[in-house]
Amino acid sequence: MINLRYIFRLTRAFISRFKALILVSMGLGIAFFFFIRYSLPLLSDSRLVRIGMTGRYTLSTLPNPILDMIGNGLTKLDSNGNVEPDLASSWETPDKGKTWTFILKNNLYWQDGKRVVSSGINYQFSDVVIERPDDKTITFKLQNPYSAFPSVVSRPTFRSGLLGTGQFRVTDLSLNGSVVEQISMKKKDGENIIYKFYPTEERTKLALELGHVDKIVDVLDPSPFISWPKMKISEGSNTGQYVGVFLNTQDNLFKDKSIRQALSYAINKDLLGGIRAIGPISIDSWAYNPQVKPYGYDFAKAKATIDDYKKNAKAEEVSVNLSVTSILLKQAEMIAKDWEKVGIKVNLQVISQIPSDYQAFLAIFDIPDDPDQYSMWHSTQTATNITRYQDPRIDKLLEDGRSEINIDARKRIYFDFQRFLVEDSPAVFLYYPTIYTIGRE
């Protein structure tokens, strides 16, 4: 008891004598804590943002928004897909699209300070002869006329590796074989961005949950973060893609155009989410045709067509195998219910990659910047024409569209292309996906 009383009196005497010093020390400690917590990051020259994205990319297939931060192309595209000057001040074709000559702007520099000259413009094209008659001129000689070539060279060019002309310079790159896992970039003002890539959307979300990234972009499903109180979620429409059901037109059932149309009429597309897509070309494109057949929900027409088919084919049932990746499973289930209402038995097949053989396939399609879709719908393109679609009229329109130089004539061609393709229904065009950016407040 004596020892405790002694310690208590000693402590009280110490506090009484040095209380001013103790209060000052505590105040300085609290101030220092808040300085470290809030002020120091604002004073740092290395402002860092870590961004998570879903996808497996190589150096040659990195997303355009990232490449545009690092470099510039000879041209660039505006929001409607029109071609504008970028590294090149002008261009011309003396032979209606077979030869393209670009003139570089003055006073252009790479990120290491070296001047941009034609010898450093490094595009890799097969079957294209590239000539550089002087430092400011670069000429591309194609085997066949191609009117969309100026939009092709809007993709940023790099002198070596990823050394470009953009505002951000690559400071570090992490590869797993040829696959990019992480890319670090720095701006002259000190801003730092690290992009981290994950194979699935679930892995991307987990990275945000664990604090490995500060935000994630281009997310299709915002759950579970909707219910998280300190998460900021913004949404937008990706009109550079559309969600559609691609139909194998060589399948015995889908050789019949009326069946393909019935499948489209049977889907209540307004319930799937996103802005409606009515054709293969983006709603933002200069070549978009707003007057194609919309295929609004028409249960009666769809059911009557399916009933007539069963009667004429003397079939008790019509069945469809619908393949889908897990990210669109919810939409696939809604489509399956709509088809079943009109008398179609649906077998859902969840897959991990594009099938080599299928009957119907629900997927997200990347819309080309230029309206030329020769590789997707022309009958000769067996490797990329996934619907195995064949139509001489569509073939001719696609051939004309990529050889016509006059922009107004091209627009008329692609208006007809959309009108006839949508009427024929080798695919059911559904909607432009809604995408989310999610990060901590």
TrEMBL record:
The chain crosses the membrane at residues 20-40. GO terms for biological process: peptide transport. SUPFAM superfamilies: Periplasmic binding protein-like II. The keyword Membrane applies. Keywords: Membrane, Signal, Transmembrane, Transmembrane helix, Transport. GO terms for cellular component: ATP-binding cassette (ABC) transporter complex; periplasmic space. It comes from the Bacteria. Signal peptide: none annotated. Residues 123-377 form the Solute-binding protein family domain. One of its GO terms (molecular function) is peptide transmembrane transporter activity. Belongs to the bacterial solute-binding protein 5 family. This is Extracellular solute-binding protein, family 5. It comes from Candidatus Woesebacteria bacterium GW2011_GWA1_44_23. The lineage of its organism: Bacteria, Candidatus Woeseibacteriota.
